[in-house]
Structure formats: structure tokens, C-alpha cells
């Protein structure tokens, strides 16, 4: 999660205090809050652990689950406000480049997110039927499975 730009102003001072919640399957993580900006730079790598993906590894590889990034404005008083959402695909190539993703709210484009999402599959030496997958920067995936399925 590198940065976002051209986000909406949610506060009276014409700025926002943006942070992002990154969700992959049943897990989610937050970035830090960047105060008083519409162009936050988080520069954070979020790693997810212990995520299981069931299914044929080839299918998962061909069509990996989406990553959902939701951006919120932090408020000291009251509930944080939703600023927009990105639906992203993880890359299965190593060290994917950062790319811009549209931030959408109510069918409107409300900024862009610069991020890279990596899903790494690794076979465990101890058990040929088990793989480990990492999703970066939004997270790492790892799981052990029966021989039927070889993902995470
Ligand atoms: Ca705020």
C-alpha cells in the first residue's frame, strides 16, 4: 500500500485523514492514519498469515480472489467516514509493480490508489501436498491442506 491521490475532502478543513482497510477473504488489516491530506502516503506492507484458499490451484492461479481496499476518513469524534473502495486482483508474478487503481464510491471515481498485491505460492519441503501463498503488500497467505488441494 503505497499511496492514494485526489481523494475526497471529508472534513471542514477541506482535508481528510485517510487510512485503508485491506481485506482478503476472511482477513483484513489497516494502514496507519495519515492526517490532513487528500494525497496520503502510507508506504506500508501488510502481510496476511494463515489464509486458506480451497480449490484447484490452477483455478486459483487463473482467477485469484479479489482484494478489497476500503478507504476511510478517521474522525476523532464520531464514526469514521467511508471515502471509497478499490477492487483489486493479486498478482502471481513476483515483485509486481505498483499500479494505480480507481477508488469508487457510489459509481463515481473518487481518487486513485497506488499499490501492488502479490500472491506467492510456495511448496513446502516437508509435505509435497502443502503450499504456502503470500499476498503482499496486503498480506500473506499460508495454510496446509489435504493432498486434494495445494493452495495455501
Ligand atoms: Ca477526519
UniProtKB/TrEMBL annotation:
It is found in: Membrane. One of its GO terms (biological process) is vesicle fusion. Transmembrane segments: none annotated. It is a single-pass membrane protein. Residues 1-105 form the C2 domain. It holds the Pfam family C2. One of its GO terms (cellular component) is T-tubule. Signal peptide: none annotated. The keyword Transmembrane helix applies. Keywords: Membrane, Repeat, Transmembrane, Transmembrane helix. This is C2 domain-containing protein. It comes from Patagioenas fasciata monilis.
Amino acid at each position: 500500500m503505497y499511496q492514494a491521490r485526489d481523494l475526497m475532502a471529508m472534513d471542514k478543513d477541506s482535508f481528510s485523514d485517510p487510512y485503508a482497510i485491506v481485506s482478503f477473504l476472511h482477513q483484513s488489516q489497516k494502514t496507519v492514519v495519515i492526517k490532513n491530506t487528500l494525497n496520503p502516503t502510507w508506504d506500508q506492507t501488510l502481510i496476511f498469515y494463515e489464509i486458506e484458499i480451497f480449490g484447484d490451484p490452477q483455478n486459483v492461479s487463473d482467477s485469484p480472489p479479489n482484494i478489497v481496499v476500503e478507504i476511510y476518513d478517521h474522525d476523532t469524534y464520531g464514526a469514521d467516514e467511508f471515502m471509497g473502495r478499490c477492487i483489486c486482483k493479486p498478482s502471481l508474478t513476483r515483485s509486481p509493480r505498483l499500479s494505480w487503481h480507481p477508488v469508487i464510491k457510489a459509481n463515481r471515481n473518487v481518487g486513485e490508489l497506488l499499490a501492488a498485491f502479490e500472491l506467492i505460492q510456495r511448496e513446502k519441503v516437508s509435505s509435497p501436498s502443502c503450499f504456502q501463498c503470500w499476498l503482499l503488500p496486503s498480506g500473506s497467505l499460508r495454510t496446509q491442506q489435504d493432498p486434494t488441494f495445494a493452495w495455501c
